Amino acid sequence: MIRSLRPGMLHFYRTRQQARWVGWTTALGGTAYIAALIDTVVDGKLSVERRVIFAAFFFVVASVIAWVGWRTATAGVGVEDDGVVVRNVLRSRYLKWDEIARFVVLPYGAYSMGYVELRSGQKLRAWGIQGRVRDLFPNSTWATAPIDELNEILAEHHAAQSARSIHELRRG
Fold first, then answer.
1. Angle between the 16-42 and 48-73 helix axes, to the nearest 10 degrees?
2. CA 131/CA 145 separation, integer angstroms
3. Where are the domains of the chain?
4. What is the pTM of this model?
């Protein structure tokens, strides 16, 4: 689990192993992709126009791969004073503490993944918090450890909110 301080963010939770796996996969895949590009463009069997088109296409595809790899490697749940930011591959979503019922780990194919369960009943995936293959590693805490910490923080915020509400009722 990674905890990092960012401006305005108290902690950022994600599974370190998942981030490393994505980083290495993207780096190795990108290296193979660039090697194929260089081999094709330098080959000399294509005309100059086709080489330029081919290089431009490779550049666009490589840029998309790099962006998806970066977003996946930096996915997670950021904790702030008044809520959390769930950063996934395609989109980030800000949630206030009162919207959140709990954080849970649920099956996702052969793996397990962290989810934010909202009071409305909706479940929002947290791509950055993933567990190992459940059948091979049934006691793995890769996903459960950050989820447990997030639930502790949530309980503190809910308790503080209840205390404020009771205080306001007594004053009222």
1. 180
2. 10
3. 97-171
4. 0.75
